[in-house]
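Ticket #4471: structure output looks truncated?

Reporter: J.K.
Steps to reproduce: submitted the chain below (178 residues) through the standard prediction queue, then opened the result file.
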Amino acid sequence: MSKIQVFDPAMCCSTGVCGPEVDPALVRFASDLEWLKENGVEVERFNLSQEPAQFVAHTVVTDAMRGRDDALPIVLLDGQIVSQGTYLTRDALAGLVGLAAPKGIYTEAVATAKMVKESPARAVVAVAEKYLGTKIASKEGPDACQPTPEGTAAACCPPAEPAPVSLGKPGAAPKKCC
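Returned output as attached by the reporter:
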């Protein structure tokens, strides 16, 4: 299996997930590295303030740091630089090591929303009818909700005349309700 090595900038602890203001990107990245370990990937993480010898021992890291001021964090895959200056996402890390990233509920929701946005209205109505178990419109086209030739409204429209409603008093005349 692959080996991921992360060379972090100087932080107060090994993960940077401490102190009064925790960076959410560091929390996510720490979780993503733990996920890699759980899936059999060898992961090593080095912090410049706690393990400077590891930075010196890896000439590719030292050269990258000399080349640009914002090189850290650096991510190595089997000894080769695959990322500099940013923390990779779980999807990107998974792709590097040949794993399929799990789809979370939000990923699925966004994918569904994109499909709905890109689908024609007719397809959306068909899906709605399938899940609701009822027919939404009795005819198709731009005049689907126009009155039918018989003078009655189409199935998707409310009745043209308000329904009579009684207020519960015996003998009271029914009132019209919308």
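Triage note (M.O.): checked the attachment and the full token line is present. The longest strand covers residues 3-8.
Status: closed, working as intended.
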